[in-house]
Every structure is written in structure tokens, then in C-alpha cells.
Write a structure and sequence with these properties.
By secondary structure, the chain is an alpha+beta fold. It has two domains: 48 residues; 105 residues, no CATH class. It is built from four helices and six strands; from the N terminus they run ααβαββαβββ. Strand 4 and strand 5 form a beta hairpin.
């Protein structure tokens, strides 16, 4: 079961219990008003928790922040930014993760700007993260996700571009 769906069901059950409790406390004349107010609050909550604000995807790093870093360290930093971006998404957002770990960056022989990146994530959205590669473990962990990335230097920043799961 998708963890987002599980949380959604739990929230709806709690809200339903809350509604029943308040409907029993108030007289029938007030119950319709309370029901409408609660229904509005539930709808607003579900709407805003499923629509996260649009923020720029963090696939770049300013050159001035990389003065003492190797290219592998730059790739590692950008991948960590990208995973943090997915971790900070709202609960019901597409591609939400709850945690990440074990980020490794490897050079690709004879390809000076291409790197192999391997990491593990605790997924909230298996449909987004599982296809391609990785091994599903307990507690929604997907280990050994891998991707080939190209590091490109543009004007005053480095950009990391996903090439895919194979060369």
C-alpha cells in the first residue's frame, strides 16, 4: 500500500471521528453548520496538502560555492540537494520521499563529465521511484537506485543532467 494513501486514510478516519464527536455535542440545528464548516476545512486541507508550491528544481550549484570541491563532490552536493527537494515536498506530492541515505558517486572511465550515482531512498511514491532500477526493501526503502549524470559548467554555475539508468 502506498504510504501516502495510508496517511490519507488515517487523516480521513480521524476527521470523521472528530465530526461525529462534534455533531453529537451540538443540537441538530447547529449540526448542519458544523458539518459544512468541517467539510470545507477538510477540503481545503486536502487541496493544500496535495498541491505543493512550485519551487525551482535544485539541479545547479554556483561556481563560487565550489572553489575547493572536486567534480565528484560537486555531483554529490547537487544530488543531495535534489533528494532534499523531494524529501521536503508536501505529504501528497508526486515523488515525495521520507528519507535518503548512502549517496555514492563514481567516475565513468573515458567519460570525464559523466558520473554514476547510487543512492537509497525511503519512498512515499513507489510509482515515481521504483521503475528502472533499485531493490524494494521493508519500510518502503528502495536501495541501490542508480543513475548516470552529466556535470556541465554553464556561465557561473554547474548543472547536473540526468542521462538515464544506463549508458
Amino acid at each position: 500500500m502506498n504510504i501516502n494513501l495510508f496517511y490519507s486514510i488515517c487523516i480521513l478516519i480521524l476527521i470523521s471521528i472528530f465530526c461525529i464527536f462534534f455533531l453529537k455535542l451540538y443540537k441538530k440545528t447547529n449540526s448542519l453548520k458544523i458539518y459544512l464548516i468541517l467539510l470545507t476545512l477538510i477540503s481545503l486541507n486536502l487541496y493544500y496538502s496535495s498541491h505543493s508550491p512550485i519551487t525551482p528544481y535544485p539541479d545547479t550549484l554556483p561556481i563560487k560555492e565550489t572553489i575547493h570541491m572536486t567534480d565528484k563532490e560537486i555531483v554529490y552536493t547537487i544530488v543531495k540537494q535534489e533528494l532534499s527537494y523531494h524529501k521536503n515536498k508536501s505529504l501528497f506530492a508526486n515523488g515525495k520521499i521520507f528519507d535518503y541515505k548512502d549517496i555514492s558517486v563514481y567516475s565513468v572511465p573515458n567519460e570525464p563529465t559523466i558520473y554514476s550515482v547510487v543512492f537509497s531512498i525511503q519512498s512515499g511514491d513507489d510509482d515515481f521511484w521504483l521503475p528502472g532500477n533499485g531493490t524494494k526493501q521493508e519500510n518502503n526503502w528502495i536501495i541501490n537506485k542508480s543513475n548516470y549524470m552529466q556535470l556541465i559548467k554553464e556561465k557561473d554555475y554547474y548543472r547536473l543532467i540526468s542521462i538515464g539508468t544506463g549508458l
